[in-house]
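Shape is hard to put into words, and the shape of a protein is harder than most. The fold becomes a row of whole numbers, each drawn from a learned catalogue of backbone shapes. The outcome of that step, for a single protein, is printed below.
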Amino acid sequence: MSTERFRLVVVSAGASDPSSTRLLADRTADRVIALADRHGHAVTVRVIELREIAADTSTALVSQLVTARLRQAITALGEADGIIAAAPVYKAGPSGLFTSFFQVLDNDLLIAKPVVLAATAGTARHALVADEAMRPMFAYLRTMTAPTSLFAAPEDWGDAALTARIDRAARELVLLMESGFAGKIKDEAWQSYQHEYGSAGGTETAIDLDTDLMRLATGGSAT
């Protein structure tokens, strides 16, 4: 297996510093680094703390204005080989900060990208939030979401079962990154997705611009 360098982006919606949400994300990222190293790969990690760009996210939601700080976060996700998305649970769902951030992203930004979903809460009653509330949103974004999701309530932190699930999710993420699936989709099958023109980074060469409809769309006239 050839050596590769993977870019892992951690998105944490923890509201405090430190936060249990960030702790769960960091533990998962550390395991991804260790497992990738066993396969001869290096992993660089970029962390996006959503509480630090909360105002930027709100501005984008109400005015469509993307600030420089938000643009940096979006660029990092677009370049990522793998993502860990972690949210605290409020009122039986992921925090509004978490969902708002992903709602402002272009629908095509995360197509086929490997993602591990993680959630934290004050009670085990919210254990299914990652699968019931978070997974559908990432399905809409057409990510390659890892089969194993993560959840931690206060009593879970010392439980070996959480460590085992982190290991399983991290292994799935490493294998998905190694597969290069996201890149293959962009190179070989992008035209089969409904997407914004240009979102494939210039690889969508099958689009025919020399048509009556495209000429009208760009202000010309049909011939």
